[in-house]
Design a protein that fits this description.
The complex is a heterodimer. By secondary structure, chain A is an alpha/beta fold. In chain A, 41% of the residues lie in helices and 23% in strands. Chain A has helices at 12-24, 35-44, 61-71, 85-93, 106-121, 155-166, 174-182, 189-203, and strands at 4-8, 28-32, 49-53, 76-81, 98-102, 129-132, 135-138, 143-146, 149-151, 171-173, 213-216, 220-223. In chain A, a hairpin with a 2-residue loop joins β6 (129-132) and β7 (135-138). In chain A, α6 (155-166) packs across α8. Chain B has two domains: 67-115; 121-271, Heat Shock Protein 90. In chain B, α2 (67-82) runs antiparallel to α3, α4 packs across α5 and α5 runs antiparallel to α7. Chain B contains seven helices and seven strands; from the N terminus they run αααβαββαββααββ. In chain B, the strands form two sheets. Chain B has a five-stranded mixed sheet with strand order 2-4-5-7-6. Helix content of chain B is 56%, strand content 16%. Chain B is of the alpha+beta class. The interface between A and B is medium-sized, with 16 and 24 residues.
């Protein structure tokens, strides 16, 4: 069955080209050019994924995101302008699954869509063991392996990596990581960054071209999901 | 005008040398006050200059650097729209030109937009403690995307170094410098990016083979040291890229220098 996508975007030139691109990939595409149209569409149809442009004529995209998140669990990918990291962080913290930055390449967009849909199907939250390329985590034993070899991590390093595995393929913001690992009042991002640097030295063969922990500059980190590639 | 009051015991007269001493202290205070005021004024003027310069650079970029790719894109689109007897090979080439020119436009706009991250009232940026390795990783990823065949040799210190910076802006600055090195250096040899610490500062050093022509170098040098900027080479965007780097470094209270010699061009950025 075709998977259906709701594209909430008001620029007709963008929707024209997305229609072609997504059509070629055999997605069922519905277009809403305003927030109202989007909410109306949800009354009659169910979707597998939402692409949401934050700049809408009738409602603040962030508010629409809040409304959608409150009502449903489907993956939401934000389309955002570059140079607006605050907005991206806000959207992610409000439950957006991912973002693409305008101008984006079609391959990048399709990859993000595949990852988000896959993540929806194979939730890692409930699994006890997750394998991602050469990396494997065992949540019960609290151990991480690379190519079958156990990797020695400190307690906090393990907690960071475990959280990244639970959110496999998604961007996790600095604040989310700090809150989960050091508690709700922590604001020392430097400790987090040093921990991250140490984890990378242990799991990456070349930290300049990381295969797993990708820096999303100004926003947070992403554990690359090799399973959807 | 300023007034200074000094309280003293009523029944004692001031000796002459005491009075002179007081006068001396007062004169010095007055001089210092005046100097501070002048300094503030000078800073205000410099800030205004800086703002003006950024504004005029933006305008120049829009008028020169953006116009060429836009002309190409709309021209080709028009040609493809009417010219139905074009060879398939020609059509493909024209489409590729559109793609290249629009990618260039995208990078130009990214550059111009990055300037909006600088607070125009103070000409300063929002700084956070950022690990250098993460910024370099982003630069590397950005370069791979735009120049898949470009070679960069990166040398980073073993331990984590933090700089106080807006990471997006520093990424943009380093990307611009390496992009210039790719476009204007000798092609087949790798560009070197060295990061090291010197005293309290972190140094980013970009080195490429090939010296930039002396005339351009002199223009760049004078642009680096003065606020009156002359266009270096608006046709290929070297001027805009560099002047944005300079603005970014300036907003971080950093320093930038360029040297040529021994068949190489070297750019260094110093940040705290």
């Amino acid at each position: 069955m075709k998977q259906s996508i709701l594209l909430i975007e008001d620029d007709p030139n963008i929707t024209d080209f997305m229609e072609v691109v997504l059509g070629q990939e055999r997605y069922q595409l519905t277009i809403a050019s305003t927030g109202m149209e989007a909410l109306t569409a949800f009354q009659t149809t169910s979707f597998d994924l939402v692409l949401l442009d934050l700049g809408l004529p009738d409602i603040d995209g962030i508010d629409l995101l809040k409304i959608l998140r409150k009502r449903m669990h489907l993956p939401i990918i934000i389309i955002s302008a570059r140079n607006n990291e605050e907005e991206k962080v806000k959207a992610l913290d409000l439950g957006a699954d991912d973002y693409v930055t305008k101008p984006f390449g079609t391959n990048e967009l399709l990859a993000r869509i595949r990852t988000a849909l896959r993540h929806q199907n194979v939730q890692t939250e409930s699994l006890t063991v997750v394998e991602n390329k050469d990396l494997k985590i065992d949540f019960e034993k609290q151990l991480v392996y690379k190519k079958g070899q156990e990797i020695h991590l400190t307690k906090n390093e393990y907690r960071i990596l475990a959280l990244m595995f639970r959110q496999l393929g998604k961007v996790v913001t600095y604040q989310t990581l700090m809150t989960e690992v050091w508690g709700p009042y922590s604001d020392d991002s430097q400790t987090l960054r040093v921990n991250m640097s140490n984890i990378r030295k242990k799991i990456e063969s070349d930290t300049l071209k990381p295969e797993y922990l990708i820096t999303e500059i100004g926003v947070g980190y992403r554990l690359r999901d090799h399973r959807s590639e | 005008m300023a007034v200074l009051g000094i309280e003293r015991n009523a029944d004692l007269d001031l000796e002459n040398d005491q009075l002179n001493y007081l006068k001396l202290v007062l004169t010095q205070i007055a001089v210092i006050l005046e100097q501070t005021e002048l300094k503030d004024e000078k800073e205000q003027v410099e800030l205004e200059n800086e703002r003006e310069k950024v504004r005029s650079n933006l305008l120049r970029a829009v008028s020169h650097d953006l116009r060429t790719p836009l002309t190409v894109i709309s021209g080709i689109a028009e040609t493809l729209g009417i010219g139905n007897d074009l060879k398939e090979e020609t059509q493909r080439k024209l489409l590729k030109d559109i793609q290249e020119e629009s990618q260039w436009l995208i990078r130009m706009v990214e550059n111009l937009l990055s300037i909006t991250r600088i607070n125009m009232d103070t000409m300063k940026v929002n700084k956070t403690a950022e690990p250098v390795e993460e910024i370099i990783e982003a630069v590397y990823k950005h370069l791979r995307k735009v120049y898949p065949d470009g070679q960069v040799d990166v040398h980073l210190p073993e331990e984590v170094i933090f700089i106080q910076a807006d990471p997006i802006l520093i990424e943009q600055a380093l990307f611009n410098l390496i992009e210039n090195a790719f476009r204007h250096g000798e092609n087949d040899l790798p560009v070197k990016l060295n990061v090291y610490q010197e005293k309290e500062q972190t140094v980013f050093e970009i080195e490429n083979h090939g010296e930039i022509p002396l005339k351009q170098f002199q223009k760049i040098q004078s642009n680096l040291s003065s606020t009156n900027e002359v266009p270096v080479d608006s046709k290929n965007g070297l001027g805009i890229g560099l002047s944005i780097v300079k603005t970014i470094v300036h907003a971080h209270n950093g320093k930038m220098e360029m040297t040529i010699g021994g068949g190489k061009t070297l750019v260094r950025i110093y940040l705290k």
